[in-house]
Design a protein that fits this description.
This protein is an alpha+beta fold. It has one domain (about 10-140): RNA polymerase II/Efflux pump adaptor protein, barrel-sandwich hybrid domain (OB fold (Dihydrolipoamide Acetyltransferase, E2P)). It has five helices and nine strands, in the order E-E-E-H-E-E-E-E-E-H-H-E-H-H. The strands form two sheets. It has a six-stranded antiparallel beta sheet. A three-stranded antiparallel beta sheet has the order 4-6-7. A hairpin with a 4-residue loop joins strand 1 and strand 2 (about 20-25). The longest helix has 19 residues, at about 120-140. The radius of gyration is 14 Å and the shape is globular. It starts with 11 loop residues before the first strand and ends with a helix.
Length: about 140
């Protein structure tokens, strides 16, 4: 069985499968392709709301599918400034377009440079990502 998962070079990745894209003074955060494939069709999304303080490594969003319920941790510390209301209405957007329309929150970072040092990007991220795909393949075969 072969599993293909989309990896994006321009993103930062966190161990619980959050991705992060720096956009000016904000960070857009979602769930990577490996996690959405492992979870199956997402049926419920419960992120922290605008104004909530988030801490790197602490739960940012809970997700639910028919076979899994779990948390994705915040890749950075800051304040949630926006939640993707479309994903709240249609959680399956995470499955359909995890790096685009399926983003979950925008966060105003409080210590971005230090937090980015704890994330993976580039070749380090690619190697980690492919290892995660291999782990998932072992679980489904």
């Amino acid at each position: 069985m072969e599993l293909e998962a989309e990896f994006r070079e321009d993103l930062y990745y966190e161990d619980t499968h959050a991705w992060l894209k720096v956009e000016g003074d904000l960070a857009r955060i979602g769930v990577d392709d490996v996690a959405q494939r492992a979870a199956g069709r997402i049926i419920y999304v419960n992120p922290l709301r605008p104004g909530a303080h988030v801490l790197r490594g602490k739960p940012l969003v809970s997700l639910e599918s028919r076979k899994w319920v779990g948390f994705v941790n915040a890749p950075i510390t800051g304040v949630v400034v926006e939640v993707n209301e479309e994903v709240l209405r249609r959680p399956s957007l995470i499955n359909e377009d995890p790096y685009g329309k399926g983003w979950i929150v925008l966060v105003k970072p409080s210590n971005l440079e230090e937090d980015l040092a704890h994330l993976r990007k580039g070749e380090e991220a690619r190697e980690w990502f492919m290892n995660e795909v291999r782990k998932l393949l072992r679980k489904v075969t």
